[in-house]
Write a structure and sequence with these properties.
It holds the Pfam family FMN_red. The protein is of the alpha/beta class. The protein is built from seven helices and nine strands. The protein has a single domain, classed as Flavodoxin domain (Rossmann fold, 3-Layer(aba) Sandwich), CATH 3.40.50.360. The longest helix has 20 residues. The radius of gyration is 16 Å and the shape is globular.
């Protein structure tokens, strides 16, 4: 299976990137593309820029990576109750090329934050919006209080949250066992 994985953040210390990396450890025998939004930096979207310059090559490249994937694993950072600016900008450019950005691909959607809500606002926004953009969300998982509930060497340390996470991983695996 070809997996495209990334975090909706450009922070070099992104906790969402750490959560994505952890999730990938449960898919060891797959073809994984783990991308960094920093490698897809685009100008701030505007219709004027779109008209004068066309679409950034990085938007085309990201859409091609999504098209080639069997599964998208994405963990969203929450900035002021919504998507990070970098992710939103990327989404805006890609959606101008193809309104179905996710191209009906299965998506394992995650979020985490240092606070107790675990990126719940951005998760709610994505659960509402992404299906309209062609995301077939298989399951989702939010990890609250990242620094208390996650250790890089051990993963999710809360037994209750680890159980919820592993259930989500099983849902993804079962999706592909049932629907090749």
């Amino acid at each position: 299976m070809k997996i495209l994985a990334f975090a909706g953040s450009t922070s070099r210390q992104s906790i969402n990137r750490k959560l994505v990396r952890h999730s990938l450890s449960f898919f060891p025998d797959n073809d994984i593309t783990f991308l960094d939004l920093n490698d897809f930096e685009m100008p701030v979207f505007s219709v004027d820029k779109e008209k004068s310059d066309g679409y950034p090559e990085y938007a085309h490249q990201l859409l091609s990576l999504i098209e080639a994937a069997d599964l998208v694993i994405l963990s969203l950072a929450e900035h002021n109750g919504s998507y990070s600016t970098a992710f939103k900008n990327t989404l805006d450019w890609c959606s101008r090329i193809n309104g179905k950005v996710f191209q009906d691909k299965p998506v394992f959607l995650m979020s985490t934050s240092p606070g107790g809500f675990g990126g719940g606002n951005v998760m709610a926004a994505a659960l509402s919006r992404f299906p309209k953009m062609g995301a077939n969300i298989i399951t989702h998982f939010s990890l609250p209080s990242f620094h208390q509930n996650f250790q890089e060497e051990n993963g999710i340390v809360s037994e209750e949250l680890s159980t919820l996470f592993l259930t989500a991983i099983d849902e993804v695996k079962n999706h592909f066992a049932t629907y090749p």
